[in-house]
């Protein structure tokens, strides 16, 4: 019989338990079966490894030598087995990287970064209006990464298993019908805008509506909000000339609508990248942030209204590219 790894584990288990009976329980073996195995190992190694008595099993000098070597060898064996297991599972079933996103200009850049940096991963994405459910999915392991967003005073709640990295805080702009008189101006007063009828998102876990309301309250004006809508539907209401609204600074103007800065920059939106600490993306955090940061700057350059605003306010919305 040759010495095997399992024999070393048996010797260590007996020494740690201090008795054959307790070691048998921890190993899921019967006490007679464990005793027989210890005797076989002792015959193989040429001497007694334990002195057995009423006090339990105490290592002999030979036993101490074997234990010292076993305790040095086994951690390396365990690490080898863990590494090869992960490699085998990766080959048999590629790592999944599931990415969620709110409506923001970062998703495409994040997907491209992940595809380049983790090419073996099975990459999928899904979008949702509100960030809170996406953050819950991250914390629960249903997503590996997400593009999120929040507002001052309404920041996303931290989770122990999730890294939140704020990328940039940018101003919120006015969304107007293209033929609206205010669209002729370089920037729009929020007080003047609140005199119009509004299309607003419904109050939910996104908290955008709550944030807008808190800022409106500071003006002592209450806009009329007959239209509740999000995404494409909100844009269509504005395009039809029925209402005004707000949008991200990076929103790309489409025919029929105009995007204008708000005078004094009273509202802000923060873009946040998030990933699980144990996700395949964690080791590539710096590289991902750098690529998404560069992609964001590229998106800013394509939105003429925001590009002009950034020229006038070069330090007001500077991306943060360092990891926490």
Summarize the structure.
With 324 residues, the protein is an alpha/beta fold.
List the main descriptive attributes of the protein structure presented here.
324 residues, alpha/beta, Arc Repressor Mutant, subunit A, D-Maltodextrin-Binding Protein, domain 2, 2 domains, seven-stranded mixed β-sheet, two-stranded antiparallel sheet, 11 helices, 43% helix
Q: SSE layout and pairings?
A:
Blueprint: H1 5-17, H2 20-27, H3 31-45, E1 50-53, E2 56-59, H4 61-92, E3 96-101, H5 107-117, E4 122-127, H6 131-139, E5 145-150, E6 162-177, H7 190-193, E7 197-200, H8 208-219, E8 224-228, H9 231-239, E9 245-248, E10 257-261, E11 268-276, H10 285-302, H11 304-312
Parallel strand pairs: 3-4, 3-5, 7-8
Antiparallel strand pairs: 1-2, 5-11, 6-9, 6-10, 6-11
InterPro entries: LysR_HTH_N (IPR000847), LysR_subst-bd (IPR005119), WH-like_DNA-bd_sf (IPR036388), WH_DNA-bd_sf (IPR036390)
Family: Belongs to the LysR transcriptional regulatory family.
Pfam families: HTH_1, LysR_substrate
What does this protein structure show overall?
The protein has 324 residues and is an alpha/beta fold. The protein folds into 2 domains: 5-92, Arc Repressor Mutant, subunit A (Orthogonal Bundle), CATH 1.10.10.10; 96-312, D-Maltodextrin-Binding Protein, domain 2 (3-Layer(aba) Sandwich), CATH 3.40.190. 43% of the residues lie in helices and 21% in strands. The chain is built from 11 helices and 11 strands. Strands 3, 4, 5, 6, 9, 10 and 11 form a 7-stranded mixed sheet that branches. Strands 1-2 form a two-stranded antiparallel ribbon. A two-stranded parallel sheet has the order 7-8. β3, α5 and β4 (122-127) form a beta-alpha-beta unit. The chain is elongated, with a radius of gyration of 31 Å. The model has no long low-confidence stretch (mean pLDDT 88).
């Amino acid at each position: 019989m040759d010495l095997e790894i399992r024999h070393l584990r048996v010797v260590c288990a007996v020494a740690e338990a201090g008795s054959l009976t307790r070691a048998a329980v921890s190993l899921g073996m019967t006490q007679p079966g464990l005793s027989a195995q210890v005797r076989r190992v002792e015959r193989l190694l040429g001497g007694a490894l334990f002195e057995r008595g009423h006090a339990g099993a105490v290592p002999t000098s030979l036993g101490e030598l074997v234990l010292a070597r076993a305790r040095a060898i086994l951690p390396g064996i365990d690490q080898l087995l863990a590494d090869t297991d992960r490699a085998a599972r990766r080959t048999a079933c590629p790592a999944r990287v599931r990415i969620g996103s709110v409506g923001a200009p970062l998703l495409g850049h994040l997907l491209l970064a992940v595809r380049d940096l983790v090419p073996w991963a099975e990459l999928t994405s899904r979008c949702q209006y509100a960030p809170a459910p996406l953050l819950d999915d991250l914390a629960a392991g249903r997503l590996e990464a997400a593009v999120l967003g929040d507002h001052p005073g309404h920041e996303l709640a931290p989770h122990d298993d999730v890294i939140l990295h704020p990328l940039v805080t940018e101003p919120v702009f006015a969304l107007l019908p293209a033929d609206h008189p205010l669209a002729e101006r370089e920037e729009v007063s929020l007080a003047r805008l609140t005199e119009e009828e509004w299309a607003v998102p419904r109050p939910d876990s996104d908290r955008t509506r709550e944030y807008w309301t808190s800022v409106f309250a500071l003006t002592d004006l209450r806009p009329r909000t007959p239209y509740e809508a999000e995404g494409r539907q909100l844009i269509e209401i504005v395009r039809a000339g029925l209402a005004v609204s707000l949008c991200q600074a990076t929103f790309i103007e489409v025919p029929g609508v105009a995007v204008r800065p708000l005078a004094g920059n009273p509202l802000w939106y923060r873009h946040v990248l998030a990933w699980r600490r144990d996700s395949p993306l964690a080791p590539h955090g710096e590289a991902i942030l750098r690529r998404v940061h560069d992609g964001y700057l590229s998106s800013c350059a394509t939105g003429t209204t925001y590009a002009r605003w950034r020229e006038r306010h070069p330090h007001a919305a500077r991306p943060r590219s360092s990891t926490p």
